[in-house]
Amino acid sequence: MSAPSSDASRHVPFIQQRNLVEQVADYLTQAIISQRFAPGERLSEVQLARDLGVSRAPVREAARLLESRGLLVSQPRRGFFVRALDAAELGDVFDLRLCLERHAMGRLMARYDAAAERVLFEQVERMCEAAASDSESRKIEEDLAFHRQMIELAGNRRLLKAFDGLSHELRLCIALIGKTHADPDSIATSHWSLLDALASGDEGRCREAIDYHIGVARDYVVQGIADALG
């Protein structure tokens, strides 16, 4: 008689399944951000399962996961569709982002030191390297990483959790900034002004810098969407 399996071994299939779902979700996220799947497009579970060499179950679970992250919407008996954000919804995302980052900027200024400056300086350098590459996904991830690091350095875990909850929609927004910005190559270098403001120790300057930084991004995206719809 064989020995009973351990708790760990009984849970291995579940862990493997969850990893597969996350892999499918990562693939779909990148496809949506790069607009290989256009806003409003219906996703075919059958075709995706065939293309990825998996069953329909992990595709369906991944779609539900992305629905919870705000990237897909479901319609009864019709399936999942890529979420099409309108100008008002994008404005709401940027308003919430501004609230989070404005507060983080103030907290970070009060504790800003050489170590924090080095972390952010190196991240802007990585952003500039990414800007010179042909990888749109790398540009998006490095941009998001800078703002996440800034909030993490502010030392409020709840603030960081709120930002992480918004991160998937922010990826869509950052992708749209790159498509609508008059000079997309300048997006990375525009972050140097945030470091200058933090180094100044001036609360008003920090607030002005983050308001301008996010406000410009919001204006490009919202106006770009409004023009496309108009």
UniProtKB/TrEMBL annotation:
Residues 18-85 form the HTH gntR-type domain. This is DNA-binding transcriptional regulator, GntR family. InterPro entries: GntR_C, TF_FadR/GntR_C, Tscrpt_reg_HTH_GntR, WH-like_DNA-bd_sf, WH_DNA-bd_sf. Gene3D superfamilies: GntR ligand-binding domain-like, Winged helix-like DNA-binding domain superfamily/Winged helix DNA-binding domain. It comes from the Bacteria. SUPFAM superfamilies: GntR ligand-binding domain-like, Winged helix' DNA-binding domain. Keywords: DNA-binding, Transcription, Transcription regulation. GO terms for molecular function: DNA binding; DNA-binding transcription factor activity. The keyword Cell membrane does not apply. It comes from Billgrantia gudaonensis. The lineage of its organism: Bacteria, Pseudomonadati, Pseudomonadota, Gammaproteobacteria, Oceanospirillales. It holds the Pfam family GntR. Signal peptide: none annotated.
